[in-house]
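Incident log, structure service

09:12 report received: a user says their structure output differs between two submissions of the same chain.
09:20 pulled the input from the user's history:
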Amino acid sequence: MPESTAGTTAPDAESWPLDFTTMVKTARRVVDSGAQLSGEDLEMAVLRLRGHLALLIPEVEDRLGRLAPVGIEEARRRLDGESGPLGPRWYAQCLAQSVLALCDHLNSTDCSVVVLRWSRDPRCVALARVELRKALADWGLSVLEDSAVLIVSELLSNARLHAQVTPEQSIETRYFRRPGGLRIEVHDGSPKRPQRRTPDPDAPDGRGLLLVEALADEWGVAERGGPGKAVWAALSMPLVRPGEAGCS
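09:34 re-ran on a clean worker, output below:
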């Protein structure tokens, strides 16, 4: 089952997908409170801010790559560091500033993405299709629905059955709106790459990657920032030739 669904607002720092509203609210409270925050509240704020940065840093890297802002290195140093001689209030303020900076940068980029994490429960494949249909409708890309839901079904099923992840490791889907189309990614923690094979005509399975190859404009396997891999597929909106628009 999914750990979180798109658009869900969760109060804890480990919510998924990225809950910018909660992150910004936590950081602004620390910035605005200044010296008034102390004791248990200060400790909890630091824990939450560190949790937010732990999610934000890889997300900035994944979405923006080499275009990631300079502030990401400062954020990483703050996450890896401690309060030091200036004390926990100063440290909390620094963490809060980094959270605000990275949230602002992500929100200002033209990058529409839905990120979800799933367990190995077989029902997750159907739920992933539901979330993809919602995203396509929101983005005006419903014309790609038939191919897109088949692709995500095959990639997610392949990861669930063959990636050899432990029960504690989740599988992640990412749906990106891109100029003129869609990119689907399925991330898992296993380094084992999918192998395209020629299926036995009488076998009920073994055709997943052949189907993905037939439906997608292109597909491939990419390295991740952490362990494992990302299998991706891209779809483009169909071209409308002159004179076809409006024809019944």
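09:41 both user submissions now match this output. Likely a transient worker issue. Closing.
09:42 reviewer note: The longest strand covers residues 171-178. Strands lie at 112-118, 171-178, 181-188, 218-223, 229-236.
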